[in-house]
Amino acid sequence: MTAPPTMTAPKTMRARFLRRPSGVGDWIADGLRALGVLGVGAAAVWGSATDAGILAFILPALMLPRFVGARAGFDIVFSVTVLVAAWSNVADLYRTFIGWDTVVHLVCTGVLAPMAYLLLARLRIVPAPGDEAFLRRTAIVHSALIGLAVSALWELVEWVGFAYVTEDIYTTYDDTIGDMAAGGLGALLVGIVFAVRPFAFERYPSSA
What we know:
The protein is mainly alpha-helical. It has 9 helices and no strands. Helices cover 73% and strands 0% of the residues.
């Protein structure tokens, strides 16, 4: 007898995304995703095209926890953080409150790094938590590197927006370096927690 065929990683991720909510945490997380979608429409009607574009840019990130099978608690924290980061730009909080930009980069990149690691693990690019090849020190290094890469991409997007869309997007050399440093530190700190307690982030084993 031959073994039954197993689902490929993309099909498994799609199945996770389409699953029904199974608890209060799932409903809250999905509600946050709905708020993200509604926010784009609200910004398009009562705000500006730039505001709507900023809020639309985070929609793929809000959907990511469902694809990778993140735990409900981590899903909620991740979604709230991403929404706060986007709405802080729309509400101009980065200019209004000194240091708010650094705090958001520290926290947001901190939660983005383990989420991105789970995505890479689902795609079988890096060892998944629970695998024999998964090492704590490797997970920490990967998390920090992912955080720095995400920070660089974040700053690149801000520069493109400033240069080609609107000068209302605040960006300077010192701001860029500070944001990248904060993002890398946040990813390192959360990466340590992720390496020690990966089950707190991951809802399903790598084979599920």
